[in-house]
Fold these 2 entries.
Entry 1:
Amino acid sequence: MSLPHPQLDAEGRLLHFLDLDGLSRETLTGILDTAETLAPVGERRVRTVPLLRGRTVANLFFENSTRTRTAFELAAKRLSADVLNIDLVASSTAKGESLLDTLRVLEALQADMFVVRHSQSGAARFIARHVCPDVAVINGGDGQHAHPTQGLLDVFTIRRHKPDIEQLVVVLIGDIVHSRVARSDLAALSILGAAEIRVVGPRTLVPRDVAALGGRFMPHLDEALVGADVIMGLRLQRERMQGAAVPSSSEFFRHYGLTRERLALARPDAIVMHPGPTNRGVEIAGEVADGPQSVILEQVTAGLAVRMAVMSMVLGNRAGRT
Amino acid sequence: MSDQGSSGAREASGAVGGRLMLRSVVDGLGERIDPAARPVDLLIDGAAPPRRIDGEPPDGVPVIDGCGLLALPGFTDLYARLREPGPSRRGTLASECRAALAGGFTRVCAAPDTEPAIDSTATVELVLRHAAAAGGARVLPIAALTVGLRGEAMAELATLQGIGCVAAGQGDAPLADTRLLRDAMAYAAGFDIPLIMRAQDARIGIHGCAHDGEVAMRLGLRGIPVSAETIALARLIELVHETGARVHVSRLSSARAVAQVREAKAAGLPISADVGIAHLHFTERDLDGFDARFASAVPFRTEADRDALRGGVADGTIEAICSDHAPLDADALLAPFPQVEPGLATFDRFLPMLLALPEVAGIPLQRAVEAVTRGPAKVLGLPPLPGDVVLVDVGKTVDPGTWWSAGVNLPVLDEGSCTGSVARVMMGGREAVRSHEPGRVE
């Protein structure tokens, strides 16, 4: 009885990119391989390719973002697309115009693609269901639901360091409940068959049913780090540090903060990741974030190649359409 | 329908006086219902119990050919939102009273969460006057327990009872102040005003939009834990102990709450309960993929919860099945899931959902029918209405194009297994609705 997923056409090709639900390992690997071919573009003197020349990409950000919006903008520009950045946080939707009314106006600008960020879970699917058929929708993060390009750039980064994902023990630390990044990371790692995904955090921040996302709850970080190949910190929102979910940021750091001493429990070649922005001294010690095992800035760079891949593939699948 | 008075008190007396003869109907008016029984002729009287007759009707009594349809007593609904006063795009008393009647309901308890709430004599009188003019089901208003449903001060409960309110309650609005609740319950007990109360904690799950389970977790939706219901229910039960108030627990959602009600009843407390019809059918799985058609203030929970609700109806722990009707306009659904207005407009699909219960839920037909007729009447101490009869075409498939409610948010039914259509409705011994020319039931 449930609604069909709007992101795949009858042949299973991506028409939108909304979340990782129902995507096959082949599809994910295909995107990652394409991203690998596009990554060198950023290292050339002329850093553009003409894949989306003449196409218009509109960044519709209903929620504040600097990093993600900038990454999508730069990715679209490297594909030679025209880019519109539309800040909707303080705009018409705040004046009471409905989300759909706003969409209709933006459709009239004849964009080929909307990159959407919204504070409500399910907003990207909602927009994909109601947008006119000529527009592709990319989810740049919806509420606590999904941030699929982040999930992909994380596995892209992991794969570059540790190509055999099926052998890996990955540890996610911190706020899973409220994290769209965690959901997309768990989905991407599960689809690619990671050997074990350990989830560590206080019970206020780890869902009871986390096993349904493919994660295995472990209460103590020290135990979870033993044998780990990949360690991912997650951002803890400030309001949750002040007694709402954890008593204080210092208590959180004492139990779940990634320090150099703790990192020594993991495999010596383990990599340290974080979607940013980091709270130093809350989730991660500064010396670890800046240390030799950290790949946090590589993640940012990987985000460009992955988003170029997703955008070009989705619009490529639509090339034959009206 | 012209018998509809403007006074709720008069309505509750059931004083209506039409007569007619139903020729060739399957008699489902008693406690045993056998849809395969041989059709009989029944004399329906607004003032006396129906009786079987042979041969011709008394002089001047009109005859309706029942074509072998199943005759059931008119339904009584313990909770429906009729939306008036309030924004008319979601429905009016005119539209929803007629939708109720077309769905087989001859008596509907109107939820207090109108805009403004049903907390003043002016609002009650407006509701009764517009309902009487609507030419639909009789409306029995539920008074707001607190002024504006704000949970700050008791409404004039005895005055509202005096002009026709049959009960009082908070609708879906939480009541955080336990001392106020205790006082209101004691006060209501003094006037023998039944309370129709949803068990809902004022803090836990208050920003949630789905059952706090696997589906909500996966979709990143804020959850409504079972404890939001059971803590509030435990509070109500304790206060019933102390105040002696008659409490009807409205729209149960979880297995643990069903067990609490069962236990409270076993202890001899004056507690009764109902469940919304949709909650006997749907679970959290149905809203997977952000399906806004299954957004509901009372969350759809797990299959185990649904099964316990079914079991509660089957064994009588849950006396009544209500519509929990909540008509919405199309715009109310056009938003990301957490921002959608919750609710299902159930009136127009209530009957097929009810008739499906024996097969999908293991609830015997006579028990299902009792839960929308004698069950709810007994909860509120309402008199029987012998002249209210619904003729049901059991085998007729649902016509997707037919609905009476102003709401567009009809429940999504499994087309294959849902049949049943209201052919005609009598109120007070007179024909009130003729939905379609009934086909013969083989």
Entry 2:
Amino acid sequence: MSHKEARLLIGGDPGSVSPELAEHLANCPECTKFQREMIALDANIRRALQHPPAGAALAEEALTTPAAAAGAPGETSDADVVASVTASAAPIASAIGGPPAAVAPVTPPSAKVIPITGARGRQHKRTSSWPGWALAASILVGAFATLAIWTLHPTDTLAHDVVAHIEHEPKSWASSQPVSPAALNEILRKAGVTLDANSDKVMYARSCRFRGHEVPHLVVSTSRGPVTVLVLRFESVKARESFHEDGMTGVITPAPHGSIAVLAQGNENVDEVAEQVQQSVRWLPESH
Amino acid sequence: MRGVRNSGPETPVSSFDGSTVGAEPGDPIIRLFATMRPDLLRFAHWLARDRAIAEDIVQETLLRAWRARDALKDQTAARAWLLTIVRREHARLYERKRLELVPLEDGIEHEGMPSPPGPDSELDSLRGAILKLPLEYREPLIMQVLGGFSTAEIAQELSLSSTAVLTRLFRARNKLRTMYGLTPAPDDSASEGAL
């Protein structure tokens, strides 16, 4: 594969790495750098597109209920549900009982602001005080959004550290030669685990320093592309945590000892792989 | 544009006064459509770059989807199905209405497209850059990133080869790279089919 072909594939779909591309990347630092830049850019594009171009206005309208704004929640009938599909966006949200949480992840602050303004100024909403309320709402929206973004930004989270670690080893994704069983077992043994799985699917295995401990960093070849696995014996999580950051989709699941992080590039669903990894990892009680 | 409707009031779903015609109240598919409406609006808005047009497109999309609901065998595929209708409706709208085009900068400035709440001006700049992409580049990018369509699916939908789609996506991202101060990758393909 030529550089030109590699860059076309990367630019066309940064999150997708075919075996041929992986082979090229393994020997081409320039294209690897280009891929890393494009994955980062793609993550930003994805974030940018989550807002409609008109920003809060559209999202707010889609999520706001006119019934609530009019102070008459719960009066929407099933017939209105049907009608709402062809009417404006607002009654739909009302009819289905509010915004679906997964639809507009950064807009809940807007939705929270509406009742506040409505409770205090509902009677005046369409009178001359509208510009004032609009300004106040805008400020509150901004404040809530800033707070939400600041609060939810995964800077200090385990997921963020996992992503940052993987970004420091971009070539790991491109490995195409299976790791020898002996080398793999040695790395796993250091972490006190074994793997009940076909080792010829493991294309990359390193013992990496992560948060002060040595952890196995594996890349497993799957039918959907390479998947990175970090066995985090010393990092406990209370519940399963899914995340999407910097062009990677991942999940961290609780394990009998610590946790396991499984990540893929792009939007690939890793739940199935994470489940398989959970079942394949055997924790050695005598270690660590 | 808000008043533009592409269907007459003889729709099987409802009339615009809200009275139900031909639909079962509480029909699961109505609720399914309703939950997806914000996604459809966002998708249509990025395609059309105009909120009112996007609303019209989505309305028409839902009407068409309702009429063709029997074709939806697998409800898990509803999102992709509806997004495809949105894209076609967007294309059809422009074919039929021959809308008067306004220079993008004018449109953005005059409509005062507000920035989404949040401190990230970099994302705002990126949004502006995406909006300025020609439709031939913006459309496959939105289909891929926002719609989750594969290259093959985009190629089929746009009646292009997969290589042509990859080229358009490559060029779209390449244009966006420049706003990050990154050097655009060489684009020496003479045509979209060149590899």
